[in-house]
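<context>
A single protein, sequence plus fold
<entry> Chain with its tokenised backbone below
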Amino acid sequence: MTPLQAIQTAAPDAFYEAGYQLNSEAADADRLQQAVSAAKQADQVVIFAGYPASRESEALTRRVFHCRITKMS
């Protein structure tokens, strides 16, 4: 069971919007905007973040992965 499946099992009214393609480094502005819009409508948000497999390495991610959390109003 994936983390998303576990959340949807525990909270059947939970919904999901992918902000990015799993195996792509290219940004999709429409996809990202849909995810942001969904997050703004939610009471709580869970974010799964990472790099595509082609860029994944612990040494790289420790050096360049920065996550800025901003309260949306």
About this structure: The chain has three helices and no strands. The chain has one domain: 3-64.
